[in-house]
Amino acid sequence: MKITSQTKIVGILGYPIQHTLSPQMHNAAFAQLGLDYVYLSFEVKPDKLGAAVRGLKALNITGVNVTVPHKERVLEYLDELSEEAKRLGAVNTIKLKSGRLCGYNTDGEGFIASLRAEATDPVGKKILLLGAGGAARAVAVGLANQGAGKISIANRTKERAEALVNMLKHIAPQVEATSLSLDDNRLDKCAAEAQLIINATSVGLKSGARPPIAINSFHVGQLVYDLIYNPAKTKLLAEAEAGGAKILNGLGMLVYQGALSFEIWTGQQAPVEVMRDAITT
Ligand code: ATR
């Protein structure tokens, strides 16, 4: 692709940033559609976040993704927020519109889109969500908005699970939401009854650790979704698969949250399969 004075610049702000797969995913999509955009990664230390975001305006950058550790702190530098970003208190996508910095959050919708791509619909489902951090909040709100039946949220720090349950009760009172701590003795029963189990904790990330769910909780007819994609098959997923459950890793969510960001910046439908291939082959 030829970069000229007309090329639109997008990218990602994070720290550290060297392992991000987003540049290859988005640049493959731009090439596929013949769009004159380039996606770059920007290593932005926490104390430089304000200067970096103000710099987007000064340089007329089309938009960026925002990742760890900036998703929450970036809000104070933006001019407008989508409903989703306001609700989650976190932004993963910024677009410069008529000189104004607008913040969005595509994580929850990206998660739901990745489920639907696997022909799974959350409507009426019994769900066990492990974790109550930023990723878990986005997933929980996405599931609640889509009409999940029952969501049990288990987190090491119980207060965070309780806070997320209270938020769900507020935005989607029809959903039966309950909180547990990870060492609650009801956890295994909850897991066995769940049709969908989601790991949104960092347990298993680049390590052989696993969330504390009894191996015999997994069975045929369940979907176990680990938001982690490195390793591609966490210990949790390997055990769930051995128990007969269908498994999914976090690559799907990564692809679909990116696809939604792509659509915000370009106004064009993202070539999802091209984006997936770019980070898996
Ligand atoms: P993210 O943006 O990826 O969600 P986060 O907001 O820091 O990151 O959330 C990390 C999640 O992993 C939290 O649910 C956290 O539990 P706490 O709220 O108790 O901190 C969970 N987590 C991280 N390390 C963990 C561990 N060793 N055991 C259990 N849960 C862990």
Q: Would you write up a description of this structure?
A:
The protein is of the alpha/beta class. It has two domains: 8-105 and 253-280, Rossmann fold; 108-249, NAD(P)-binding Rossmann-like Domain (Rossmann fold, 3-Layer(aba) Sandwich), CATH 3.40.50. 38% of the residues lie in helices and 21% in strands. The protein contains ten helices and twelve strands. It has helices at 22-33, 49-59, 83-88, 107-117, 134-145, 158-171, 187-193, 235-242, 251-266, 272-280, and strands spanning 8-14, 37-43, 63-66, 80-81, 93-97, 100-104, 126-130, 150-155, 176-181, 196-199, 223-226, 246-248. Strands 2-1-3-5-6-4 form a six-stranded mixed beta sheet, with helices on both faces. Strand 11, helix 8 and strand 12 (246-248) form a beta-alpha-beta unit. The longest helix has 16 residues, at 251-266. The chain is globular, with a radius of gyration of 19 Å. The mean pLDDT is 97. The protein binds 2'-monophosphoadenosine-5'-diphosphate. 2'-monophosphoadenosine-5'-diphosphate binds next to helix 5.
Q: Overall mean pLDDT score?
A: 97
User: Residue share in helices?
Assistant: 25-40%
The first-level CATH class name of the largest domain: Alpha Beta
Structural class by SSE content:
alpha/beta
| H and E order | EHEHEEHEEHEHEHEHEEHEHH
Determine the N-to-C terminus distance. 20 Å
The CATH topology assignment of the largest domain is Rossmann fold
Estimate the global geometry from the Cα principal axes.
globular
List the ions, cofactors and other small molecules found in this model.
Answer: 2'-monophosphoadenosine-5'-diphosphate
Per DSSP, the total helix count is 10
Strand content: 15-25%
Annotated CATH homologous superfamily of the largest domain: NAD(P)-binding Rossmann-like Domain
**Record field, number of beta strands:** 12
Widest beta sheet: strand line-up: 2-1-3-5-6-4
Main β sheet profile: 6 strands, mixed
Low-confidence stretches: none
For the record, the count of structural domains works out to 2
Radius of gyration: 19 Å
CATH architecture of the largest domain: 3-Layer(aba) Sandwich
